[in-house]
Amino acid sequence: MPVQLLKITKEQFETLLPSHLQKEDLHHLQEDCDHTNKYIQGIVVLSYPLTKLRDGTDFFKIVLQGLDDWGSRVDSINILIYGKMAEDCAKVLRHGDTFIVAGFKVMKSPTAREDGRHGCHLEVSEEAGSAIYSVAPKYVYTPLNQLKDGTTVNLYGVVKFFKPPYVSKGTDYCSVVTLVDPSNAKLMCTLFNGNPDFLPKIYKVGDIVRFHRIKIREYNGQMQGVTSAGFASLTFDGTVGAPVVPRTSSKMYTFMDEEHKTIKELRVWAASNISIPGPATKLSGVQPMLFFDLTCHLVGKAKVDGSSFLLKVWDGTKCPYPTWRVPVEAKDLEGQKVLLRQLRDLMVDILVYDNHVQLAKSLKIGSFLRIYSIHAKQASADNEDGSHIEFHLHGGTCYGRGIGVLPESNPDVKELKALLESVDLADSQNMESMSSEELDDTFSDFTDFESYLQRYRQLSVTVLTDHQYLNDTELRTIMNSTAPQQYRIRAKLRTYKPQKLHQSVKLYCSKCNSLQEVPDGDEFGFILQRSAVTAPNPELQDTSWYDSVMWTTQGQKQRTIVIHFVRHDEMVPQVENTLLMIEGGTLKEVWKLAKRFKCVIPVRSTEDDLELLDLSAPFLLQGNVKYYGCKQCSAPKPIRNLSSIAAEQHPSWEPAEIAQVLGIVLLQYVFIMKFTLVDGTGALNAYLFDDEKFFQIPASEILTNSFLQEKMQMTMNILCPPGRKLADLPWLECFIKSYNVRDAMKHQVCYQIFDTTVAEDVV
DNA sequence: TTAGGATTTG
Questions:
Q1: What is the distance between the alpha carbons of residues A763 and A752, in angstroms, rounded to a whole number?
Q2: Where is the Telomeric single stranded DNA binding POT1/Cdc13 domain (predicted)?
Q3: Confidence bin at A190 (pLDDT 50/70/90)
Q4: Which single residue has its CA nearest the C1' atom of nucleotide B6?
């Protein structure tokens, strides 16, 4: 019996539970009965701390309340969990979870008299072949107009106002968040935690949050949310079309398709129902006398006095007005000296006061910040310097005033980094005007200076992975030479095709050199539908190398599904190592199984063996990746050939190995792009033909991973920033080879990029 | 406990 510890929803559970298992009620449990094919289901009502037995074995005890045993004399039972399973259970189990256990030993409970629970207890361990399923509770979300005083609820909301975590006058950090939702109600929440990381990671108005276990109270005639024990939050970018990636400090959370849908719906609602602030203010667009939020890079900081602290920041642009310089002792100024000098005309001084001082002191030089509600104060012109602008972050938290640290993954930070890198600092650098003492300082920090230059004035946004000894060749020379040859070049990327990056992914057969589009999901769905017509052959179930489970779906369209679990060492291995074959599954079912199990192979029955479906469908699914075979070159072999891999000592189920035994020639996912490169002497089109090396992103995963798509788009925006003049484009170091393409009509020389990769600090 | 939105006055 498999050992499984799952955090799944009830729907998934119903499709995953082996059909030979039958539910047993608590009152039928007896010490000497056979419980091999029985399972017990209940709710976790009590758990004890994880401990170790004398021999070092981990031990975890929980109390289960039987679902159908309410009102019976004994409705709860002790479950004793040993070894690794104890450790795993202690990590994921929470009170209220539905818990299913099979493969247990029933023993007389020595504590039944004292605790009043079942006369037997269950003993569970990996060694005993036990299986445990923990079914995450289905969360119910309350609309904001249906909140009741004194309840603890789960909810979604769009952030209408927020104060980033600040140091309260008590012991905790505090964050105030006002939410709205399509019920048109508003809820203000005051959230506390000793660790600001556990408060919602809200960066701007319009972000969407999901709160679990927030306590609702009435305050001044209005509902108010406050943190309860077990409060947890997820935060999402509220922009329509942005990747749905939760920001959270929680290690365990459930986030499924349904939640995905909710976020998308809320984004659409928010887009037309709340006013989301326009483009962020840059230093170049600062308006005197107003308040603004600034996304910036922390270059320096210094203590000023007890109630104020200085931050020196830069956002890649230059403020058009004279700005103040807050005088500080040189010894109090933290930051890279050379950088501070380099940026002296670009960065601005922001003086922060009172409650913000403690947080400001703790900031790390080099981090990316969003400073909310900075006051651009117009200083009077009565001193000798004339008028200038002062930047203050006043005390208090009115209007969300405060400081937030942004992670490097934040899209605004990525944009800022790209901007910082594109700025040419040569103009603001004036070595000649420095005193010799200043120059000494400068060169004592030479290494810092170098690393800084590398970061912001990247000599090349690509690097060669080989052939570094070669000298550059001008494009003009290359175009006037015969092919085939290899060259090192230094050029700029003027444009590239396709602009829609997902169109660059193709399937390539290395045997016949053919290229084809990646089939879309619909086609796969149709093939599955068609193959579901073939009735499963009962003689092909439960063979020497796989166990089969068959069931028929309820409802109008009855459908028979068979899953064949491939065995290893006479056992079906753990879920994450299991290869399964499925007959009669739908697209959705196949996808779900592929996410959970190691490999899924869609098959249908013939008279004497299972066989693969049409090769227009993927022959294998692993996680998010669908593997296809070349129709031209493959000669499918009987499925039973897979048993040779299953018999290996440690089957790794590599797609290439599976393809080989099944007679499939595996198609490779590749990026194919056309780069137009220029270097002042000429322009040529070079093809990029890459599976992973150039972007350091696997082509096989890009179509199903929005994070990777975003990463690739960011990379291209750095290689070829949109809307820039040629002079402002970065340089690319590339290795290219020329080759001849001839047909009856014409002869052409083509170029291909190879042994080149995007520089590490670009990706 | 803290804060409970609705700009400092340096």
A1: 22
A2: 141-271
A3: very high
A4: A399
Q: Last residue of some domain: A239, A254, A273?
A: A273
| pLDDT for residue A2 is more than 50 | no
In this predicted structure, what is the pLDDT of residue A450?
40
> At a CB cut-off of 8 Å and minimum separation 6, what does A74 contact?
A26, A27, A116, A117, A118, A119
Nucleotides of B under 7 A from a protein CB: 1-10
pLDDT of residue A437: 42
Closest nucleotide relative to residue A395's CA, C1' based: B8
Task: Report if CB A604 to strand B is under 7 Å.
Answer: no
Distance of CA A300 to the CA centre of its chain: 31
Strand B closer than 7 A to residue A419 Cβ? no
Residue A286 has pLDDT above 60, yes or no: yes
Top-confidence range, A293-302, A475-484, A712-721:
A293-302
Please list the residues that pair with A65 across neighbouring strands: A43, A76
Smallest CA–C1' separation from A224, nucleotide? B4
For chain A, percent of residues with pLDDT exceeding 90: 52
Tokens of A204: 């701007």
Using the CA of A401, which nucleotide's C1' is the nearest one? B7
- Check whether residue A268 and residue A389 sit in a common domain: no
Residues 365-404 of A with CB under 7 A from strand B: 373, 375, 377, 392, 394-401
Q: Determine whether the distance from the CB of A215 to the nearest atom of strand B is below 7 Å.
A: no
pLDDT at A424: 55
Q: What are phi and psi of A256, to 5 degrees?
A: -115, -175
pLDDT band, residue A426 (cuts 50/70/90):
very low
Residue nearest B7, CA–C1′ metric = A398
Q: What are the start-end ranges of the E strands in A616-667?
A: 620-622, 625-627
Q: What is the pTM of this model?
A: 0.52
- My answer on whether A315 and A401 are in the same domain is yes
Sign of CA dihedral A144, A145, A146, A147: positive
Is A729 a domain residue?
yes
CA–C1' A319–B3 (A): 36
Q: Is residue A305 part of a domain?
A: yes
Average pLDDT score over residue span A470-498: 90
Say how far apart CA A490 and CA A227 lie, in whole Å.
57
Say yes or no to pLDDT of A427 above 50: no
Confidence tier at A443 by pLDDT (50, 70, 90):
very low
Nucleotide lying nearest to A354, CA to C1' measure: B10
CATH code for the domain in which residue A92 is found? 2.40.50.140
The single-letter code of the amino acid at A122 is L
CA of A356 to C1' of B1 (A): 20
pLDDT of amino acid A70: 57
- Of residues A152 and A555, more confidently modeled: A152
Same domain for A316 and A417 = yes
* Separation between the CA of A391 and the C1’ of B4 (whole angstroms): 29
Residue A447: what pLDDT? 41
**Residue A101 and residue A170 share a domain:** no
Per-residue confidence (pLDDT) for residue A533, from 0 to 100:
87
Q: How far is the CA of A193 from the C1' of B1 (A)?
A: 12
Where are any strands of DSSP class E within A354-442?
Answer: 368-378, 389-393, 402-406
A511-531 pLDDT, tens per residue?
Answer: 999 999 999 878 899 999 999
A393 CA, B7 C1': Å apart? 10
The residue range of the domain holding A590 is: 521-664
Tally of domains in chain A: 5
Tokens of A585: 């599954």
**Nucleic strand B near CB of residue A175 (< 7 Å):** no
Residues A265/A386, Cβ–Cβ less than 8 Å: no
Q: Is the CB of A255 under 7 A from strand B?
A: no
Specify the higher pLDDT residue, A126 or A382: A126
Q: Is residue A201, in this structure, part of any structural domain at all? A: yes
Q: Judge whether A550 lies within some domain.
A: yes
- Whether A176 sits with its Cβ under 7 A from any strand B atom: the answer reads yes
- The answer to whether A160 CB sits below 7 Å from nucleic acid chain B is yes
CA distance A445 to A311: 21
Q: Say yes or no: A11 and A112 in one domain.
A: yes
Residues A216 and A307 in one domain: no
From the Cβ of A747, is strand B under 7 Å away?
no
What's the rounded Cα separation, in Å, for the pair A610 and A539?
10
